[in-house]
Amino acid sequence: xxxxxxxxNGRVALVTGASRNIGRAIALALAEAGASIAIVARSDEAAxxxxxxxxxxxxxxxxxxxxxxxxxxDADRLVGKTVEILGGLDLxxxxxxxxxxxxxxxxxxxxxxxxxxxxxxxxxxMSRAAxxxxxxxxxxxxxxxxxxxxxxxxxxxxxxxxxxxxxDGFTKALAHELGPRGVTVNLVSPGMIxxxxxxxxxxxxxxxxNTTRTLVGRRGTPEEVAAAVLYLxxxxxxxxxxxxxxxxxxxxxP
Length: 254
Prior knowledge:
By secondary structure, the protein is an alpha/beta fold. The chain has helices spanning about 20-30, 45-55, 70-85, 110-135, 150, 160-180, 220-235, and strands at about 10-15, 35-40, 60-65, 90-95, 140-145, 185-190, 245.
């Protein structure tokens, strides 16, 4: 496919939590479709730079920005640097999250706030900073990344589930506010995705994976989640807003 025919050619996307797994796949898919990418990570600059090199190896443009999306000043700076360096902002993907597991009676308030801060506060802060730029462009979009257990529940994930469920409501609220101004807001909810968790805060396989089965008989890939994000971000998704797209192989049927 020629560069001129790519559906996101000339667009700018910012993807949080983009240094590995689903975030990495989203960044690469959007870049392959022609978007310039701001790859945001909290601290792992080497992993983020690796994703940027992958984008550039395929002829795309990428920058790496480090920051904590749960901090107001960082969120404003991340959006501001994206606009300054890449010339604007058309798409925000709120993917950054923390996925720890612990019984609720053993959760400290600090544990609760850390997860809530990155997943839900981060989506709010990044969206608020991005909205003026998304409105200024043509057909801006926000895609939030949720999770299966926000709809099914699970053991030892009260903080994670609450944060992800909050994203569902946040998505609907923003869709009402931004739809009249030309910006769509949707949520992609992955479930049972085959990711590398060696470097995640949970440190291993989530317990609910042992009791959840897909109808298609396999786990999904990060690239399949990325394909859903690309659809909602692209021209084919302009009449879709306020919706949740479940990418879970039938593990949950709403």
